[in-house]
Design goal:
Layout (H helix, E strand, L loop, with lengths): L2 E2 L20 H4 L3 E11 L2 E2 L6 E4 L5 E18 L8 E3 L5 E4 L2 E7 L25 E6 L6 E6 L3 H10 L13 E3 L3 E11 L8 E8 L24 E4 L8 E5 H4 L6 E5 L6 E10 L6 H9 E3 L6 E6 L2 E4 L1
Parallel strand pairs: 2-15, 13-17
Antiparallel strand pairs: 1-20, 2-3, 2-9, 4-5, 5-8, 5-10, 5-12, 6-9, 7-8, 10-14, 11-12, 12-13, 15-20, 16-17, 18-19
Length: 319
């Protein structure tokens, strides 16, 4: 298995009908199916609900077991070997949704049926039984040599969905991963159990990446504005990517790199902080120390919410 760090940003184009085909090929080439596969990694090793990931934290003494790992993918761009965009259309199913306001796919790399992903592993377990590890669609047949995408629900689509539906009544896959209808969606969710180390008790980790300042406190997200003030939408650019052989890896060791694995401990009744213990806590708030590291590893400037794919170290190519 070979991994490549992600270099400079590729052009940002439209999601549906990406780019413009040249010459007569646009009318003579028949649509070809494509699949962009995703995987959870720890370095070069695949990670699943039955894996233990060791060597985390400042001294490498922390280990984790995944409980939930899901994220939305939008603005998927496909490019040929010449760097030109390839026209493409996403399939429509329970994991991939499109409207005039935009398109989105849900990648879900964990079920809640086994190992550390079971509902009893973490206090706030929220995983689902179903999984989805590939985004599918059709192109005009030119081989794919590079891809780019954003991690999250597009702002216009989020605005339309929240204005039209209840949280539970939104079309799949937008009927999950919302914070509340005042704050909108989480772009990425990773929950995990932290294993005991020596005489220390175990803990829990919650990494929830989403937009901030999305609307009035007593209203709906984006009802009084076009976009959230802080987008916090990670951008990914993989200029060497052949979907025949390659997958997109989310390296959780890179995502958690630099964290101290110490988090507040709360009273279960009052929710007041009563101490600290093994843990990771990031709910996209600038007041949470872990968020600075997580956001940096995803290439997000926490002060502005802007994303730089060249700084996103967590998403890699794996073969």
């Amino acid at each position: 298995m070979t991994m490549f760090a992600k270099p400079a940003r590729l052009p940002v184009l439209a999601l549906l009908a990406v780019g413009t085909a040249c010459g007569d090929d646009a009318t003579t080439t028949s649509p070809q199916p494509f699949a962009i596969r995703f995987a959870a990694l720890a370095g070069a090793q695949p990670v699943s609900c039955t894996s233990e990931v060791p060597g985390l934290g400042p001294a490498g003494s922390n280990s984790i077991g995944l409980s939930d790992l899901r994220f939305y993918v939008s603005d998927l761009q496909l490019f040929g070997a010449d760097g030109e965009a390839i026209a493409s259309t996403l399939d429509q199913d329970e994991f991939q949704y499109a409207s005039p306001a935009g398109s989105v796919a849900l990648v879900d790399l964990t079920s809640n049926l086994e190992g550390s992903c079971s509902d009893t592993t973490t206090t706030a377990a929220e995983g689902t039984a179903r999984t989805h590890d590939a985004i599918t669609g059709t192109t005009l047949g030119e081989p794919i040599a590079a891809i780019s995408f954003n991690v999250g629900v597009p702002q216009a689509l989020m605005r339309e969905t929240i204005a039209t539906y209840s949280p539970e009544g939104a079309p799949s896959p937008l009927d999950e991963m919302y914070w509340n209808w005042a704050s909108g969606y989480r772009h990425l969710v990773m929950n995990f159990a932290i294993g005991a180390t020596g005489s220390e008790a175990g803990g829990e980790g919650y990494v929830h990446v989403g937009s901030r300042n999305c609307g009035p406190e007593d209203g709906l997200a984006l009802e009084d504005r076009e976009t959230c003030e802080f987008l916090n939408t990670p951008a990914v650019s993989l200029p060497l990517f052949d979907p025949t052989f390659d997958s997109v890896g989310l390296d959780i060791t890179r995502l958690l790199q630099g964290l101290d694995f110490v988090a507040p401990v709360y009273d279960t009744e009052t929710f007041e902080v009563i101490g600290e213990g093994p843990g990771v806590e990031c709910h996209s708030s600038p007041t949470q120390p872990d968020c600075l590291g997580v956001f940096g590893n995803l290439g997000i400037d926490m002060a502005s919410g802007a994303a730089d794919p060249a700084q996103n170290a967590a998403f890699v190519v794996t073969r």
